[in-house]
Amino acid sequence: MLVVFAVLLGERQGRFGNLQNDLAEGKISSVTVRGEGLLRNETGSVLQTVVWEGGWGITRQDDVRVTTDEDGSGSTSSGPVLSGERDLADYLRRTYPDLTVNTEWDRSSESSILGFRHLPSGLGLALLVVNLVVLLRIVIDRHAWRATRWAWFWAWMFVSPVAVPLFLLLSGPTPFVPAPRNPDRRLTGGWALLLCLFVPGIVSATWAARSW
């Protein structure tokens, strides 16, 4: 349930370049710029965040370095850089007159789950409590279904946002979830450790390639 709330309330990493393409094609009608820009008499650079609704109803965000340097040479940011500007909101309003640009202060007392940022802080606290309860159950329960105690532990260590709901659902007994045909055949700790080390990296690389 917490993961569902993370998807519904959180913000996934996006790309400012993709946003600009969608804005040029008229696919997006409104964005939110988080953070304060530079004043008229100020020079230098500032980091601002733009938030928009992407495909599948997922809210996306990207951090943009706004700098008064025309060529962006004064910025060391590895992300997108907007040169010759003082405020991202002003730039978006001027470049896309039909776009609704909302502004708000940055929110610091928030958490992140599964890469979704800017979640209510209470949701992060609830996730922490659930994680600790699941860890305690893993330590105590020597006869969990489908995987050994060490296998569930490594999953909790490396991919807890995925492992925690899987443990609650599959470690048994769970209503409406059938028991495994062979309870003694379980994923061992060694194999689980290898899967946790390599599978997330492969998935992340595949996701990044698709984002380009």
TrEMBL record:
Designated name of the protein: DUF4436 domain-containing protein
Annotated transmembrane regions: 119-139, 151-170, 190-209
Transmembrane is among the record's keywords: yes
Domain of life: Bacteria
Keywords: Membrane, Transmembrane, Transmembrane helix
Organism in which the protein naturally occurs: Kineosporia corallincola
